[in-house]
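Predict the 3D structure for this chain.
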Amino acid sequence: MRVPETRYARSADGLRLAYQEWGEGPRVLAVPGLLSNVELMWEHEYFVRINEMFGRHLHFACFDKRGIGLSDRPDEPPTLEQRIGDIVAVMDALGWETASLLGVSEGGLMSQLFAATYPERIERVLLHNTAVSPRYYGRVYSYVRDGDVALPHNTEVANRFRAMADGWPDRPNDMVEWMMPDQADNESFVRWVGRLQRLSASPRDFRRQVESVFTLDPGDSPERIVSPTLVLHVKGDRVLHVAMGRLLADLIPDAQYVEVDGPDHFSWALPNWRELIDPTIEFFTGHRPARTVTRRFASVLFTDIVESTHRSAEVGDSAWRSILEDHDRLARKLVDEHEGRVVKSTGDGLLVVFDSPSRCVECGLALCEQLRAIDVTIRAGVHAGEIEVHDDGDVSGIAVNLAARVEQHAADGELWASSTMRDMLLGSSMHFDDRGEHALKGIDGAWRLFAVGT
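Done. Predicted structure below.
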């Protein structure tokens, strides 16, 4: 889908708050957690798949809190009252007299107070991986169940936040290992989180944000919420223990409660993310989205960095990390320019799909050439055919597997194509050098492959 335009609302004290809106359906405003950047979230496939899912079912909006992302920085750490005033400002800028709220983490604390203070403006409230007021902490222990992760002491949580602030933004693995441990071994994802950190908050901004989180207290707001409410919590959340969610659901009159397996606090990167998104959409629309698979024609590109382990040892971890970040930015920029869609990161490479065979090949050639200019050698492979497109954005099918096998046979620094792709581009300016027949693992028969040039 087309990336929505970033607009600005103005808070009661004059700060400008960045927000976006997209999709059709019931109005839902997301109140973000610790970190956000409304434009950068469209650069990673984990965010995009969720944003697109929301847009198919909801009139969805999100914003960057004051002091974070593309919004203005205040002179002092924001109070909870100022924060909920910012929700009013964004809703007014959207022209929404009423809407539902989706509050995540600290955004859930904001949503609790807002729903209790402005019941006339709230249709529904969803509170995800969030906490309760300190006044209820004594009751949390009775909600711990056998098999839960250990309930951390408040001091331990505060120390982890402050340690993360000390390493900001040079140690993104600190955040991933604690808040998104399911992705801790995904080096490409960790690099992208580092980019999200740098472009969302300076070290000073983040430390101020962390310190302000410790002051957030919605009081008895949960007991005063009258709107239909769903509390949704990941069972293995290491930041805000699942016992918090269970207690919160009991405090809110007639609240629904859904618990999902997983270890992540920021759950949009979980492999079972649909177990969170499906009940979310059902709660706001009354209908659970169907899981569908469609077949369509596409051109598929796979890339991979050559000898990345050797290069890392050669230049050192720090320098190699910087090179990989340059690779990630340049690769995604070229994919966007050639109207492709990144499906996923695959170790040190990408899986990308295109509607056009020529754009697919042009992008592959541009990647080989421009990455070589920053001293990164890749191999790339392309094939075209019918693929299966899942409603979560993933793709599968023989055509996808075949493109992966072509990439595995490609010579270092080259883009190779299947005979199918060569035949489709006969008469174009592309030049195809015959590299002979190859047996492709898992694919019947011998396939003639070609190195592509211009």
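The radius of gyration is 24 Å.
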